[in-house]
Amino acid sequence: MKKLELVKGDVLQRKGDSNSKVFLVEQGLLYAYTIDEKGKEHIFMFAPKGWIVADISLAPNTSELYIEAIEDSVVIEKKRSSELNNTSNIKLERRIAVLQNRVIMLMSASAIERYSHFIKTYPEIVQRVPQRMIASYLGITPEALSKVKSAKMKNNKK
Amino acid sequence: MKKLELVKGDVLQRKGDSNSKVFLVEQGLLYAYTIDEKGKEHIFMFAPKGWIVADISLAPNTSELYIEAIEDSVVIEKKRSSELNNTSNIKLERRIAVLQNRVIMLMSASAIERYSHFIKTYPEIVQRVPQRMIASYLGITPEALSKVKSAKMKNNKK
DNA sequence: CTCATTTCTTAATCTAGGTTAATGCATATT
DNA sequence: AATATGCATTAACCTAGATTAAGAAATGAG
Question: Closest residue to C9 by CA to C1' distance?
Fold first, then answer.
């Protein structure tokens, strides 16, 4: 738990780094973002004074996100594990991880990519739920989902 | 903290209801969704066995979400406040609330609606950050954001 | 088993937002 | 001051996915 002074442009965490740290913004403004395969940046969140920024993902030790200072800033760095001392915390963190993934998907992935990710992540649910609900969860229409599925089959990517 | 037995189609919580409850799924499958102004349903999450479902929104007592059973299910109902006994929990809940809003926005709102919501919710950040970052946060291109802004000005909806 | 309702698929058309490219502004750098 | 680099805006075109519509398949109720 130490205090860090940052100047505009400093990068606190890179994709692939350990994600065991949590940063509390004491002053200034940071932001967290991903960069997709095409090199495009997608801003996941802004973190002004008083907010916490962290990559809270399901993968144990690989950050999905870059965290960077937009302005000169002061942050407190904590170990994430110190937050994990009770059950409700763990459940809440899992929820955040799922939502983080969902936001990144919605921002950066096409219908096909979203569907592929969904069936990989929730294979049991795919079986138990009507197509129109999956479409709605993915943020597309049932008609578009039909198209996606037949496109996938033709490509043997079933 | 009581146990509820649900049959397929039972609605646990409606938009506008108190959101002070958290449901732990012991068996079956539930889902949480919003309905937009046009009557269209947007599925926010599925909740199979072992998951928690709840509307964790910033507004104190008005759920944004409907929660409903897709299959016959058994859930444990808890008071949400019982989860709120320490600081890190409150911070985590705030993060979830923000992410919940963000997912709903990304799923159901047009570029104009997303921008309007953003400037209302984070007026300070709009001033401190380049346009291209706001566009990226909204999930649109800087060019599209330019269009949106000039469209808004013409409509006096500035 | 039959009729009704909902779900899924396919196809034709439409549109919001993406892509590309050119231009004007700022802010840096020498 | 002059040049360079990045940011914002505008406009012409393009494309993924929405909308609309109709038929086929599945599910359900009596």
Answer: A146
